[in-house]
Design goal:
CATH topology of the largest domain in chain A: Alpha-Beta Plaits
CATH superfamily of the largest domain in chain A: Lrp/AsnC effector binding domain/regulation of amino acid metabolism (RAM) domain
Largest interface: A-B, 78 and 78 residues
Number of strands of chain A: 7
Oligomer: homodimer
Chain lengths: 149, 149
DNA sequence: CTAATTATTTGAATTTTATTCAATAAGATA
DNA sequence: TATCTTATTGAATAAAATTCAAATAATTAG
């Protein structure tokens, strides 16, 4: 047996989906060629970054979720944006923002469980340049990626 | 002229997309019927909640983004989860989580600009039961919804 | 352990959908 | 107004999804 589902989840995570032109056309009561034209326009103008799946993360062994607030030491490795772009490469990280206020960055992290999260923090997030880490652990995810759960 | 793009953005926000079976099949070097079978299985088991677009929010007049940390007064209107589900209905709100620690809830909000955000906080987020609001305003969005910007 | 049952894989045929193309219409510009 | 650009749309084509039936693999029951 091939285990295809994990590969599918991996691909659908960030892309490998496409708009349903015919369904949108029916819904908006417009010809599908009009919808097609307008969607391609949105894509060509860069307004659409990707089409992707949103998962029930509990069911795909990614039930643990936390928001992590970070501070950086002012001296070493300086640039928070560079660090942010490096962190963004990890597929465990859903979002990365540089923010105002008492913290400099907030990242949203998903993991299988608290142990996996702890390992991820230890190996990836804790690093030279990070001076303080505050974890806001999600007890109940009500909405994510604009999709209600 | 019809302004279709706003309607498209509205629909593609939460759904109206579908997986690209043929492209996935090529990528994984499997027959498209096998991919089809496995994707339907994921869907039927409820592992996939939706297929949707991710936008370049600056380009669709949703450039403002903030994480809002909330506390509730213990007495009135009690249930944070109920409040969370009500907030989740607003399309301006990308995510809602009930969390551990100094705050009880974190929501991620998008708006056209700071003024629109302020109006949204005034009219929707501030309400009986909310005792404290802390805004972490995003200065730079590096990754969102698992998509790098 | 073996038989029976269930789940998965796959090619061929069919149905549906996306895409291309050309003509027209609408809007913008000079 | 005349000209150029952008948007809409139907018809034709190309591509993709879906259905179906058969074969294979995995699991379960006896």
């Amino acid at each position: 047996m091939k285990d295809i589902s994990q590969k599918l989840i991996g691909l659908l995570h960030r892309g490998y989906a496409t708009p349903q032109i015919a369904r949108i056309a029916k819904r908006l009561k417009e010809p599908s060629t009009t919808i097609h034209y307008n969607i391609k326009k949105l894509e060509n103008e860069g307004q659409v970054k990707a089409y992707k799946a949103v998962f029930d993360y509990k069911k795909i062994e990614q039930g643990f979720c936390a928001y992590v607030l970070l501070n950086f030491s002012p001296d070493e490795y300086g640039d928070p944006e560079r660090i942010g772009r490096e962190l963004a490469k990890y597929e465990e990280i859903e979002s990365v923002d540089i923010i105002t206020g008492d913290w400099e960055m907030v990242i949203k992290v998903r993991a299988n469980d608290q142990d996996a999260y702890y390992e991820f923090v230890k190996s990836v997030i804790s690093r030279k340049g990070v001076s303080k880490i505050t974890t806001l652990m999600s007890l109940k995810q009500i909405k994510t990626e604009f999709v209600e759960l």
